[in-house]
Predict the structure of Dipeptide/oligopeptide/nickel ABC transporter permease/ATP-binding protein.
Amino acid sequence: MSDSLETAAAAAPAPAAPPVQAGAGQSGTVVRSTVIRRLFRNPLGIAAIAILTVIAVLALLAPVLAPFDQNYANIAKTLAAPDSVNILGTDSAGRDVWSRLLFGAQLTLLSALLCAGVAIAIGLPAGLIAGYYAGKFEAASNWVVGILMSLPGLIVLLTIRAAFGPSVWMSMIAFGVLISPSYFRLTRTAVQSVRNELYVDAARVSGLSDLSIIARHIFSVVRAPIIIQTAAIAGVAIAIQSGLEFLGLGDPTKATWGVMLSEGFKNVYLNPTLLFWPALAMALTIGGLVLLGNALRDALEDGEKINHRKKKAAPEGTTAAPAAVRTSRKPMATVVAGTEHHLVKVTNLGVGYPQADGSIKKVVDDVSFHVDRGEILGIVGESGSGKSQTAFSILGLLPDNARIVGGSIQFDGNYTVAPGDERVSQERLSKLRGKRISYIPQEPMSNLDPAFTIGYQLVTPMVRVLGISKAEARKRALKLLTDVGIANSDRTFNAYPHEVSGGMAQRVLIAGAISCEPDLVIADEPTTALDVTVQADVLDLLRELQQRLNIGVILVTHNFGVVADLCDRVAVMQNGRLVEEGSVRDILRNPQEPYTQTLLASMLEGKEPMSTLVSTLQKEPVA
Ligand SMILES: Nc1ncnc2c1ncn2[C@@H]1O[C@H](COP(=O)(O)OP(=O)(O)OP(=O)(O)O)[C@@H](O)[C@H]1O
């Protein structure tokens, strides 16, 4: 029956809004209030809320409104027609039907809530953990879910009844456990769809703990589908509970709607209204829940369409020249380039991916370089040459299946990848990311969580990493936004990502990257996704900030022009290998390797993209 229970749950209003969209459309006070407003504009939403509110109020006020106790029996007045004392008549035991309906509403709604609560308490955290961490927990959870779903639900409920007696609470707890896989699957799928979103990586890089990322960025994505699913599950729980009671398996001492239905059915020829009233109450409640689920879905989908339109129509943002950046930063000793102690030292690094045949395909092979404070190292190469994989190794953002197949990485003298390590140490890196190492990504929009305002996304890491108050962080965020050339910092602070242009979003990410005073910034093609008119501004800004703050920068790019413009030194990569490294001046004047010469020649000829070079050069396989 579990399968059929799931099917029943799925057949009710689907938790249709795609997770990301749902999250996008529904978090934050402003957006939440917009969803509620849209819900109230939908006639179906109003009808559902009105029906459910009336039923909930009647249930709450049952002890006040009911003229008799649910089990008070007047045997002198059985199966009586409605009159002024018993406004809906009496049943075969002389009990007041109106009073029993009211108390029945209380029990029925509470038991449905209990069922949904148990299912959420089990399915939601398990789905969040399995979706976010995957691995062994997900495998074990899938196994448990498989077992739960293969259990014959009706037999389980009958066994529970035999063991614990006819308790509506016990059967609803058991039903909650049986239905919890539906929450697990919904949550896990939603989380999987955003787990690798760039804004989750960005949150990780900004120093947020896994718990904070799950609570803030991941949970917001599943919240809407969970609410919609709960409306459906509550309806199914009422139907299942009433079905069991109708079969005579309920507690006859409790006036639930199912018990009343069973009682009414026995006397259907004598007094059909005994069947009618509980059936009407159930139909209204389940119908109200189904309508509410549909209206919620519509409200969220409308919001998504509006967001999408706004995003399309968003004007290109400010291109105001960067204002002066803050100068209050503590001075840091600059390590002289060439000495042994470097800010970042990558030695013979190799990164690979296991293949189906058991071999490992190397995508970074024997790469060595260093970066010191106050200098910009450009890593340049055509698409697929391993630039990002190298940068992600330093950031600890390699995919789960990536393996370090050789070499080491040191940050300020400490290993983040020690010789012999198979993986980047997340433990060591979590202490550095967001505090000492920050990241400016390629796609500004995908790296901002659509569910939160820009201000919130700037303030949270500062509060956590720098340990300052929210008010202080807000002040700093506004100053940073001004520093990166955003004219109306207040407006941008309160805006959602879809309300700003790509250029502005990149400035916001640069502000975020320097907000916690890092020593190293890794910028992965920071201008690729931007309009050409904004690219030069962003590069100028980066250079100015780097010089003022004396930070080390690793700039990943496929554009030698950007390297020539911005970098002090350059490492040229091809097919996962570092083919040449040196000062920009030397490499530009006197490139030694044919590959570098071709890259340079292509820049001078204005050829783009670099991948067109592939055909002109003979590639050597690296694995
Ligand atoms: N998850 C993965 N599994 C297997 N191979 C991967 C994975 N991610 C990247 N690669 C491979 O690693 C190689 C290097 O990729 P990388 O992203 O570092 O290139 P890149 O030089 O940064 O290129 P681009 O400029 O296009 O981003 C590519 O051949 C790519 O196919």
Remarks:
- Residues 273-313 form the longest helix (41 residues).
